[in-house]
Amino acid sequence: MSESNSLGQVVAFGGGHGLFATLRAARVLLDANAITNLTAVVGVSDDGGSSGRIRQAFDVAPPGDLRMAITALLPSGTMGDRIGSVLQHRFPSGESDSGLEGHVVGNVLLTALWNGGASTHEGLDLLGSFFGVRGRVLPCSAQAIDIVAEIVGLDPQDPTSSSEVCGQVAIATTSGRVANIWIEPNDPQASQEAVQAIDEAEILIFGPGSWFTSVVPPLLVPGIRTAVIQSSARRILIMNLSEQIGETTGFTSADYVRAWLALFPDISLDGIIFDVDQTEDSWECEQAAQSVGAKSFRMKVAVHTATHDPDKLANALRFVAQDLGSK
Known about the structure:
The protein folds into two domains: about 10-145 and about 185-325, 3-Layer(aba) Sandwich (Rossmann fold), CATH 3.40.50; about 145-185, no CATH class. Helix 1 packs across helix 13. The strands form three sheets. A seven-stranded parallel sheet has the order 3-2-1-7-8-9-10, sandwiched between helices. A three-stranded antiparallel sheet has the order 5-4-6. The protein has helices spanning about 15-30, 50-60, 65-70, 80-85, 105-115, 120-130, 170, 190-200, 210-215, 220-230, 255-265, 280-290, 310-325, and strands at about 10-15, 35-40, 135-140, 145-150, 160-165, 175-185, 205, 235-240, 270-275, 295-300, 300-305, 305-310. The protein is of the alpha/beta class.
């Protein structure tokens, strides 16, 4: 660690509600000066809803997960909550022809900044500076990426056959089993700002979130993966609280870890945080963690076993990082 009372610089990976939960917890640590700097490295593969429409219409990175990360890092308090409500506001769908139906205010603001000449990361930095965001939000790549999966079990007449399925929405809602996943293009240029943040980090945090469509995609960008492999930072995985109907139907914590090992055999972990109320017993969690070189931590981090609690998760991250120490 950089100082005895500081966990140093932190980078969190992912997208959607899972990354939102991690960033809320990390922001608690940032506000308490327990960490010195916080960066979110966000996936850019969303192809649904407002993000999908903006991506197709303007040839930009899908803004939705980036907007959610910025919202998670807004200042604490009433004003931050109000700004967050505005950024997250979705115009209702209906019969009007305004063109705003279904779009989210923050998505529109980011698109306006990008259309005005700002690069992807410049637009994110500008939006963050407008609202006093603490920390930085960066895409894993400045260009939009498609995720593609090999899905087994889609054909009821031949349950062992596999099909190629493209797109985040299609993969997230599949009724089959994800056997493999990759990105197209297969070698997009990694965000150099994100690579630099990873190089300088002392803690890297992965998860929780939609496993194959939020947690995994940033690490499929070769430049990001290489930076993570070469990093001397401690690597912490926050375990999902449950299966996600669709892409990880039936998954246990051990299944998530096995999926990590299959995709990233070259990325060992140092610690995995399991909620104490998860159904697996401590031996199963310990065995799963050991398979990727990690120490298992069973702690109370959830509210009603459905959602990670920011304060509890912040305390857990502080404890785990201090317990692991520096490499």
